[in-house]
């Protein structure tokens, strides 16, 4: 009998395992073979993540190889650059996420926890006083509490326990490689966020610059096949003029493209008797920016704080007790998520005005220092539950003010609705 079993060793599951294993007998299960290799990922890791991951040294260059100082919100005609040196401390770090996950798993095992890699859970049975998990070869485990941290890869299990599943879209990711001098010559920004409706009406095309590598990709539609996604990515990398300076002379292998589901939009509830859902599996990803690491580490911290005292009193882990997890997740994250909801409503669609709106947004950032400062403050805010939505409103009003008169008349209802989301 385990106290906690966690399915999924991504950022949410590994973070939670490293934390809760200090207080409870813990098993972490991952379907992929992480003992062989944890898939490489290069991610932006903003300063606002720091309070949720105190167990990791911010100065660890193996995990965080470089500072994140410049973000470029890029249209085809303009760069809206947030440069942290204009305002103070860095925006955060760039993360080699496979090394972060590896360190979190090491911490789990140092705490006496168990990590089973390359094992798939095929069935979950719910009993009055425990949960029973059965793997593909018929072996079973029992636990007092189950945590689902499967991202977008465990929908069948999630449904079987009565949870909703979040909206999900197909995304593509590939890494480009080169020596550090060439990487820096090609790309001065740590992060590029680019919107082009011809690439996708569901999400961005992006670059995350790590050490001797750059991650790039985009979010496709719900019904695009893997072959269509990879073919589109190849055309973009070879022919899309705005990004040619970034990819020139770098090595990449299209066969290494990762194509998979990416979820967003929170499900209605994140817990029931003896079960909690963490991170992307719960749809806790910012709607516009697809920022998922934040919710992963935040959910892990919140779940640990909720469960630790329950283990101390030998709780029955009722739905009522675990609802405190839902409440705290919503308190910590949902105010910050509002800005992404508004931007998503305005930008992610097939309307003819999207390109103009994005162009004006990037122009606003290039011209308006206060708008840049407010975005900078969101990156570094250690208390996102007190995210200042009036700052977002200011940016939105200035953005609306840049519209031509006729567009103001046409789009004012949409801007008004976006403010209420």
Summary tags:
3 domains, FAD/NAD(P)-binding domain, D-Amino Acid Oxidase, Chain A, domain 2, globular, alpha/beta, eight-stranded mixed beta sheet, single chain, 12 helices, seven-stranded mixed beta sheet, 421 residues
Supply the CATH class of the largest domain.
Answer: Alpha Beta
What's the Cα radius of gyration? 22 Å
Tell me roughly what share of residues is in helical segments.
25-40%
Second-tier CATH architecture of the largest domain: 3-Layer(bba) Sandwich
- Beta-strand content bin: 15-25%
Number of helices: 12
Q: Which spans have pLDDT < 50 for at least 5 consecutive residues?
A: none
Structural class, judged by helices and strands?
Answer: alpha/beta
Largest sheet: 8 strands, mixed
Please, could you describe this protein's structure?
This protein is α/β, with parallel strands linked by helices and 421 residues long. It has three domains: 2-66 and 91-166 and 265-334, FAD/NAD(P)-binding domain (3-Layer(bba) Sandwich), CATH 3.50.50.60; 168-261, D-Amino Acid Oxidase, Chain A, domain 2, CATH 3.30.9.10; 337-420, no CATH class. The protein is built from twelve helices and 18 strands. The strands form three sheets. Strands 1, 2, 8, 9, 10, 11, 17 and 18 form an eight-stranded mixed beta sheet that branches. The chain has a seven-stranded mixed beta sheet with strand order 6-5-13-14-15-12-16, sandwiched between helices. The model has no long low-confidence stretch (mean pLDDT 96).
């Amino acid at each position: 009998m385990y106290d906690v079993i966690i399915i999924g060793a991504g950022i949410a599951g590994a973070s939670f395992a490293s934390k809760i294993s200090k207080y409870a007998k813990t098993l972490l299960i991952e379907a992929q073979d992480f003992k062989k290799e944890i898939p490489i990922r290069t991610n932006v890791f903003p300063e606002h993540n720091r309070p949720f991951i105190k167990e990791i040294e911010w100065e660890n260059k193996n995990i965080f190889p470089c500072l994140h100082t410049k973000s470029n919100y890029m249209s085809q005609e303009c760069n809206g650059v947030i440069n942290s040196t204009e305002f103070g401390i860095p925006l955060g770090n760039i993360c080699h996420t496979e090394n972060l996950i590896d360190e979190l798993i090491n911490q789990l095992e140092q705490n006496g926890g168990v990590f089973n890699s390359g094992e798939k859970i095929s069935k979950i049975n719910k009993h009055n006083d425990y949960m029973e998990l059965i793997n593909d070869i018929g072996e079973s485990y029992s636990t007092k509490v189950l945590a689902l941290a499967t991202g977008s890869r465990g929908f069948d299990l999630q449904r079987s326990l009565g949870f909703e599943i979040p909206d999900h879209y197909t995304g593509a990711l590939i890494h480009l490689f080169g020596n550090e001098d060439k990487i820096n010559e090609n790309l001065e920004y740590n992060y590029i966020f680019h919107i082009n409706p011809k690439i996708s009406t569901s999400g961005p095309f992006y670059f995350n610059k790590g050490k001797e590598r750059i991650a790039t990709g985009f979010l496709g539609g719900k019904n695009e096949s893997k072959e269509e996604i990879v073919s589109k990515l190849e055309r973009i990398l070879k022919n899309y003029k705005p990004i040619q300076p970034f990819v020139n002379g770098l090595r990449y292998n299209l066969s290494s493209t990762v194509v998979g589901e990416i979820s967003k939009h929170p499900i209605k509830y994140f817990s029931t008797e003896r079960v909690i859902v963490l991170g992307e599996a719960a749809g806790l990803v910012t709607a516009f920016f697809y920022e998922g690491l934040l919710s992963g580490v935040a959910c892990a911290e919140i779940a640990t704080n909720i469960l630790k005292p329950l283990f101390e009193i030998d709780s029955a882990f009722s739905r009522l007790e675990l609802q405190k997890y839902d409440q705290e997740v919503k308190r910590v994250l949902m105010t910050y998520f509002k800005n992404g909801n508004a931007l998503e409503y305005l930008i992610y669609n097939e309307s003819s005005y999207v390109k103009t709106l994005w162009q004006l947004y990037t122009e606003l950032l290039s011209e308006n220092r206060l708008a840049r400062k407010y975005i900078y403050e969101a990156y570094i805010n250690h208390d996102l539950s007190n995210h200042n939505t009036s700052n977002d409103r200011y940016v939105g009003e200035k953005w609306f003010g840049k519209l031509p008169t006729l567009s103001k008349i046409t789009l004012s209802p949409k801007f008004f609705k976006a403010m209420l989301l």
